[in-house]
Design brief:
31% helix; alpha/beta; seven-stranded mixed sheet; six-stranded parallel sheet; 332 residues
Length: 332
């Protein structure tokens, strides 16, 4: 089978297309013939040894897939060869075939493409866990979403609207602003691309404050970090929840006096660990996502697809932080 491999730490240019033996399903596993693999910002980090965990090399990046069950290992029940499935293996998805635990599988609904299936679970799973479990979002509250045109950002916008919040989307270009509006954002802030000096940060804080209103935002969703975090925190309301999701713009340092003055919470969001530690709660969130998907209230936006041999180009695009929605690598 074909695989796009990371053999050494580095950027997307270090990835190599290789031929490997087909995997064999072990006890409790199935082999999935991969049709689509979504690209996320962790793929940028994992090949540079900058992610939370470091797989043994060589490995294929690609954390979420959709495809068809090709074979089934001993002890697996409830699944059949030919079933259309989705899974989030964390890495290893840029391959023609992958062995995964049957416990990781989700059924891909009829009428949904493999690309849509690959692009759903990680971003919407992260966002629903962040908003519901960590942010305690409620109808009528104001939600500020940074990086609102990316994969997790658009998911947060759609879910915020589904849960009855007023959503303010913050983005870095007019094109991204339009994508956020199409996803349902009530108001959009277009901010300058960093780095921002202190005057730029103060100006951005005023933009955020004007957009969320005098009472401030009850929930702020931050998958960006860097120079944008402190200005956003300054717009939080009393007893608000600041959700720390990611740091593509850099890891910020917060003046903790702001948290005292607003009596607010700064909440880390580590969806992968949550899903492993509390699989029942994760599955309940997935059921909610599937219901919203059926109702048309959420839908992954796929801006571009790439063949496997150009998977490195997809990761390079993600690293440049210019992507709207999701990028997907296809194996067909």
């Amino acid at each position: 089978m074909r695989a796009l491999l990371s053999r050494e730490s580095g950027g997307p240019e270090t990835l190599e297309l290789a031929d490997l033996p087909d995997p064999v399903a072990g006890p409790g596993q199935v082999v999935v013939r991969v049709h689509a693999c979504a690209i996320n910002y962790p793929d940028v980090l994992i090949i540079q040894d900058q992610y939370q965990f470091r797989p043994q090399r060589p490995f294929a990046p690609g954390g979420e897939i959709a495809g068809v069950i090709d074979s089934i290992g001993p002890g697996v029940t409830g699944w059949s060869v030919g079933d259309r499935v989705m899974a989030v293996p964390g890495h290893g998805g840029m391959v023609d075939r992958i062995a995964v635990s049957a416990a990781q599988l989700l059924p891909l609904p009829e009428g949904r493409s493999f690309a849509e299936g690959a692009a759903l679970v990680l971003t919407y799973g992260t966002s629903i866990h962040a908003l519901v479990d960590r942010g305690r979002i409620a109808a009528g509250q104001t939600l500020l979403v940074l990086g609102a045109a990316g994969g997790v950002g658009l998911a947060a916008v759609e879910l915020g609207k589904a849960f009855g919040a007023r959503v303010v989307a913050a983005v870095s270009s007019p094109e991204k602003a339009e994508a956020a509006r199409q996803a349902g954002a009530d108001e959009v802030v277009v901010y300058a691309r960093g780095p921002l000096d202190r005057d730029g940060q103060r100006a951005l804080a005023e933009q955020f404050k004007a957009a969320v209103g005098a009472a401030g935002a009850e929930v702020i969703y931050d998958p960006v970090g860097g120079d944008y975090t402190e200005p956003a925190l300054r717009s939080i309301g009393w007893a608000g929840r600041y959700l720390v999701v990611g740091f593509p713009a850099g890891i910020p340092k917060l003046p903790l006096n702001l948290t005292l003055l607003k009596s607010c919470d700064v909440c880390g969001v580590f969806w992968g660990a949550f899903a492993m530690r509390d699989p029942a709660a994760h599955r309940a969130h997935v059921d909610t996502l599937f219901a919203l998907w059926r109702e048309g209230r959420i839908a992954p936006r796929i801006s571009e697809t790439f063949p496997l041999e150009r998977g490195g180009d997809a990761i390079a695009r993600m690293a440049a932080r210019q992507v709207i929605g999701k990028l997907v690598v296809t194996m067909d």
